[in-house]
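User: ABC-2 type transport system permease protein, Algoriphagus aquaeductus:
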Amino acid sequence: MFFTLLRLQALKSFRSTSFAKSALATGFMIFIALLLLSYVFFAGLFLGRIIELIAEGRDALDFLNSGLIYFFLVEFMYRYFIQKLPVVELESLLHLPIGKKRIIQILMLRSFISPLNLIALLLFLPFGIQDIQEQYGTLGFISWFGTLLFFSWTLHWFMLWFKQRFEDSIIGLLVVFATLILGGGATFMGWYNIGELIAPMFAMALTSLIPLVVFFLLCVVAFILAFRYYVQNAYLEDLSDEEDVRFVNQSFGFFSRFGVAGELANLEWKLIVRHKKSRTYLMLSAFFLLYGLIFYTNPQYQRVEGIHPIFIFVGVFITGIFMIQYGQQFLSWNSGNFDFFLSKKAGVESLVKGKYLLFLSISLVCFLASVPYAYFGFEILMVHLATFLFNIGIMVHVIIYLALWKPKPMDLNKGAMFNYEGVGAAQFLIIIPLMAGPYLVYLPFSLLIGDYAGLIALGISGMIGLLAFKPLSQLNIQKVLSNRYEISSSFRQEL
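Assistant: Predicted structure for ABC-2 type transport system permease protein:
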């Protein structure tokens, strides 16, 4: 049955009109996966030597045992953002004369065939053979390495349940934040060392089979948890994206003051909340508001006087993260209904104005959410204010202008991670003005006069852009209008 379903999936792919494009994308992703896994394997070959260099005289195995928890914290994070759920084929399988439990079993086993489940194997197997087997024998190696693998595979089955149950929800986001704070953040802040709390378990695995048995049972429990949840909810209306109606249908009241453009901004907000990919971008924007903690607490970037130049990029990133991410695919979000706006009087113009309004509003929210960074110094607040003005006065027009170069269609119900629908050359070119634009204004004044003069120049240039907002936005509106039929034709192409 497993191979029969694989054959059906292969026939579905071969018969697709976009088979050539999908095959090229799949081949590229396989190449990238093999390349990354080869890097992991070579890192595993030299893991013992790497630990000796950074362990500062400590025993390499003790150091590794105390640091394994951080590997699993990282694994939890990349599984949350990358690991795919095994329910995408249900729509084409539930009508077949196959037991529902059998379908779920096959889909779950198929999900286990993933490069993510090879990372722990490739990284720690060479070290186990070279060091642990030599010191503790084959039984000690099997117990230690088996405990590590079952820990990793437990995360796999747990994540299948967790993502289906809480993905794109407030609870899921809070769990991710709590994992970061209680895990790596607690150690970084010096509250306690979670690695030292977990190390005795792996040390015991060297001489006892108890940890191996415990984690084997945890892996089985995680599998049963995910399996039962999928079986109980294996209906299209249940395994579809669950949305909180209170948020899906909620509008921003002040948008209504801006006429048709405001109404379309409201519709755009509902589109963002309702669809998986756009909602993921919104959640990532909230997540990346913590980006400043990496730089503002790092002694390397602290100065007695003045501001480190890297803070300018951090400020642009924090206050404009949603505009940068969502704006890169400016019209691709509306590829499914772009013809509707073409058929309405001033529909395209109102659509573009509505998106402008939404970008400016969410950028303002991001700036207000970043105000607590003033705890690290009043100059940080000045950086965020200057970069916020520059973003809404200058960068928003640049990002939209580049995003209008040959926009591509996309499916909004697919996830954002490793999904390149709607991505073209323009999305990669946007990084150039993002990196260079603020510094072209800031650095001349900073070098000639001082850092605060650079911030004032950055803020003033943004305010000038706001004063000239109407003619600048009209340039992008005219670009859309002049290419509207070409854009509409490209959106009709099947993904």
